[in-house]
Amino acid sequence: MDMVDDGTNTTWAQLGEQETIWAVADGLRSWIERYGVPLALYVDWKNLYKRPANSGERLRGEEPITQFGRMCAKLRIAIIAASSPQAKGRVERVHGTHQDRLVKKLRRKDIRSHQAANVYLQREYLPEHNRRFTRVAAKAENYHRRAPRAAELDRIFRLESERIISQDWVVRYDNRFFQLQKQSHNYAPAQSKVLVCEERHGRITIEYRGEALRWQEIPAPARPPILSAPRECVVVESIKKKWTPPMHHPWREATRRALEKRERRTSHGTARAPQPSLALPSASP
């Protein structure tokens, strides 16, 4: 994950096993803790950052938002999706520099894990890279906003999903079942919406109207066994006879009228049929 300041070319990068939501969130949080909150991010057009609206959202006039988009919205960071790699020329050129220099330096230092590579990036590679390639911005103003406190960042950089409380006060999330407990001698209302929040290292919080609820994880309910009939039992099934409507049934009325109409036409046509005439040859004068 690589982030480049468009004004000064300052770079921050870290390695991850995959381009997941947590890898992106960790990179943005690291940038915010060092430089502040940026005004906008210029990102790839991927579902991780920004996705197109589906048919239902287009009909309702809703703008789709991803988990990362929700985090940026809380920080008042605009997301700009690039339609091609060439549109992000600055960061793509920095990628080319890293793919050339960083790979060789990691091989020379015999670094073979993500953790060791990230330590090397923070302590040696990035400080040297920024000393060589950082430039003075065209204007002296710094548009980064002040970074929030760590506790506030923890509430921002988390996954949030709405769930419905079942009739037995159980909330299901990611194939896990959470039994809600009494809150001040009362339960949260059944069939109400709660917010299930998952933090970076898997800690779960369930909130109802901004208040955290107490819960206890329970095992998945067992499915009822499928009972099979004993071998000595004989299962008798009744065969339902196909029902045929009688002749005087209203369903047959249209068919009966069509038959009568056809018969009337046939009889009427036979009565008026012209009789064949015998043509006699004319006598010659």
What does this structure look like?
- By secondary structure, the chain is of the alpha+beta class.
- It has helices spanning 21-35, 55-60, 67-74, 89-108, 114-133, 150-156, 253-271; strands at residues 2-4, 11-13, 40-44, 78-82, 159-164, 170-173, 176-180, 193-198, 204-208, 211-212, 215-218.
- It is built from seven helices and eleven strands.
- The strands form four sheets. A four-stranded antiparallel beta sheet has the order 5-8-9-10, with no helix packed on it. The chain has a three-stranded antiparallel beta sheet with strand order 6-7-11, with no helix packed on it. Strands 1-2 form a two-stranded antiparallel ribbon.
- It is elongated.
- It starts with a strand and ends in a 14-residue tail after the last helix.
- The model is unreliable at 273-285 (pLDDT under 50).
In short:
This protein is α+β, with helices and mostly antiparallel strands and 285 residues long. It is built from 7 helices and 11 strands. It is elongated, with a radius of gyration of 38 Å.
Report the β-strand fraction as a percent range: 15-25%
What helical percentage do the residues reach?
A: 25-40%
Total helical elements: 7
> What structural class is derived from the secondary structure elements?
alpha+beta
User: Which of globular, elongated, flat, extended, rod-shaped describes the shape?
Assistant: elongated
Biggest beta sheet attributes: 4 strands, antiparallel
Q: Identify the strand order in the major beta sheet.
A: 5-8-9-10
Distance between the ends: 118 Å
Arithmetic mean pLDDT: 84
Order of helices and strands: EEHEHHEHHHEEEEEEEH
Q: Give unreliable regions as ranges.
A: 273-285
Number of strands: 11
Radius of gyration, rounded? 38 Å
